[in-house]
Amino acid sequence: MSPHGRYRHLFAPIRIGSLTLNNRIVFSAHLTNYATQDGLPSEQHVAYYAARARGGAGMIITEEHSTHPTDWPYEKLIHGFKPEVVPRYLAITEAVHDFDVPILAQINHNGGQASSMYTRLPVWAPSAVPDPLFREVPKAIDEAEIAEVINGYATVAAHCLAGGFDGVELQCSHSSIVRGFLSPATNYRRDRYGGSLSNRARLALEIVSAVREALGRGPVLGVRLCGDELIEGGTTVDEAVEVAKMLQDSRAVDYINTSIGVATATLYMIEASMAVPPGYSLYIPSAIRSAVTLPVVGVGRFKDPLQAEKAIAAGHCDLVGVVRGQIADADFAAKARSDNAAHIRTCLSCNQECVGRMGLNRWLGCIENPQTGREATLVDAPASKKRRVVVVGGGPGGLQAALSASQRGHEVMLLERESRLGGQIAVASTVPSRAELLDLTRNLASAATRAGVQIRMSVEATAEMIDSFSPDAVVLATGARPSRPWWAGTPEENPHVVDVRDVLEGRAEPKGRVVIVDDLGFHQATSVAELLADRGASVEILTPAMVVGGDLGVTLDLETWNVRAHRKGIRQATDLVAMGVKRTDTEQGRPAGIELELVHHPTGEASQRVADWVVVATHQTPEDALWRALSGAPFEVHRAGDCLAPRRAHCAVIEGHRVGSLI
User: Fold this and answer.
1) CA dist., res. 170 & res. 203, Å (int)
2) What sign does the CA torsion over 140, 144, 147, 149 have?
3) Do 346 and 406 lie in a common domain?
């Protein structure tokens, strides 16, 4: 599609230093955990970046490359200071250049946002201010060590140049020793590197000068700035604008990239979940762009090309960083350019397999794209023989299985007993701040339909029905059903003790005093709590864990949940184990209700809560009756997702793909 079409701003070429980009879509720097144990780039890096170049990105910026041996905050960090990186760099850059896409390397020293776990050396920082996440007191570096840091940046820049990169980007933003120097919240120095903004910016400018000298005039040099740390006493957008002016005045920098937050205290705003509106940080590039003539990159949860187009058209930025959007779909740019944006696997901003896996020290993946993170090894070959495949269940596992089988050339029919697709994802998407979750099954259903899958809804599959289709293979993705906890008694005994799904699917309407028991530590309990609070209920969540919704910390939802819970009056209590329920009589003017018996497990102290309803978020039971009924069938029978073992959506998608690809 021409630049004068629907996305004429997004696909207009732009000059960045010596480079001319074909479009304004930047695959910005982000961690992947793909490095080898000895800190070198891997074949997975090559395949990962090449896939986004093939998919039409305008420019690629790799994850950070460490500039000094004192900087090793996480295990799989690329050690750019090692000469051995150069041949690995060449493999990456040659693969990307095959698609005529420029690629830069981001280089960085994380400073005080690190630990000595791997180095067994003190952490270096501008001042001895411990980071709130790592909680390690760093060493305030002296001027000789500052010179060493600067030389490290120049050395790595030279390695990147030898490795075929078109330039480098300096991370001076959310997790960087340079940001630490720039910020009054972490820079308490009284020498020429502290105090005034010009002093605090001195290290950044000296690094820029050293790196430019190492690169020469041709390669591109960019700087990524934090525009607003969102912490008390931290960098504000006004100071960021002044630093951007200094960088422009240096005449050594070709563009400014932007970010928001600090990669520990306010990490949840850097990689914002779906609870945060898209484009939420555009005020930062907008302010910087109004003050400098250098091209400016904007970021902030851009998940479709229209959002990016509008940001550029409105003058907020010159380019747009699209990271999770291209993690979810490597062909994001190509589909938009060819007027097939509706075919993009839209990012959910769920953070489960990208940010969440990173937080668990695992390699980066994607909840809805099973190929992300496996580009170097996962190649689906066409089937040698066309087969007839029946898939039962239209949730994410069934849809992915149907799609993968159809893409291999099989004839696929999918049966769904409900009148709509989505399974539990469709239910979960009905609660506050979770509507975008439905994109998972919407994207899969659209792709399956285009691939030729025959989808039949409102069909209750039976063994006899399936046998009548004479299939060669059957995939069961029939999900799971609520499981009543042992302490709750029967529904007849305690009808006001219900599962979260009973509430979300409309079988129960709790009101008045509601206690929610959170055994799962994820969105189930917190989402229902918000829903009921919005309906006027008085809500308290109890959990046997140390934190309500503990796993929301991994996906960066915990902070925003707590803000909303406080605003809605939702109470929280921890370390409490449910032990039983009984009905209560009217007493002291209060109506009859349910008394929930509890034990505080650290101390063994018993307590009670009286409520009108108890809602339980607990583990489910596989819907495997059809699996048992098909035992001994004359065709292959596979399972995927919750009917095999109830887990989260990414497991269903991965298993659906695995099964569909093996048939």
Assistant:
1) 12
2) negative
3) no
Q: Answer yes or no: are the C-beta atoms of 587 and 611 closer than 8 Å.
A: no
Q: Are 487 and 582 in contact (CB under 8 A)?
A: no
Mention every residue, 6+ apart, whose C-beta is less than 8 A from residue 639: 475, 476, 477, 624, 627, 655, 659
Flag whether 304 is in a domain.
yes
The full DSSP string for 31-94 is ----S-TTS---HHHHHHHHHHHHTT-SEEEEEEEE-STT---STT-B-TTSTTHHHHHHHHHH
Q: Is 306 helix (H, G, I), strand (E, B) or coil?
A: helix
Q: At what angle do helices 85-97 and 43-54 cross, to 10 degrees?
A: 20
pLDDT, tens digit (0-9, with 9 covering 90-100), for 444-501: 999 999 999 999 999 999 999 999 999 999 999 999 999 999 999 999 999 999 999 9
Q: Do the domain assignments include residue 449?
A: yes
Within-domain flag for 375: no
494: number of Cβ within 10 Å: 18
CA distance 382 to 108: 43
Q: Which two tokens stand for residue 252?
A: 């050594």
* CA neighbor of 331 nearest in space, from 50, 631, 116: 50
> In whole angstroms, what is the distance from residue 401 CA to residue 413 CA?
11
Q: Tokens 């929610």 label which residue?
A: 516
Q: Is the Cβ–Cβ distance between 299 and 258 less than 8 Å?
A: yes
Radius of gyration of the chain (CA): 27
Amino acid at 587: E
In 3D space, the residue among 452, 418, 391 whose CA is nearest the CA of residue 657 turns out to be: 391
Cβ 78 vs Cβ 149: under 8 Å: no
The tens digit of pLDDT for each residue in 575-620 reads: 999 999 998 876 555 567 899 999 999 999 999 999 999 999 999 9
Q: How far apart are CA 228 and CA 174, in angstroms?
A: 9
Neighbours of 251 (CB within 10 A): 8
- 610 and 531 part of one domain: yes
Task: Of 119, 109, 114, 149, give the one whose Cα is nearest residue 131.
Answer: 114
CA dihedral 79, 83, 84, 86 (to 10 degrees): 90
Residues 599, 657: one domain?
Answer: no
Residue 368 lies in a domain: no
Transcribe 362-417 into DSSP letters: -----SS-TTTT-TTT---PPPSS--EEEEE--SHHHHHHHHHHHHTT-EEEEEES
Which string of DSSP letters, residue by residue, matches 585-622?
--BTTBPPEEEEEEEETTTTEEEEEEESEEEEE--EEE
| Residue 587 structural domain | 484-618
Single-letter amino acid, residue 342: A
Number of domains observed in the structure of the chain = 3
Q: Are residues 315 and 427 in the same domain?
A: no
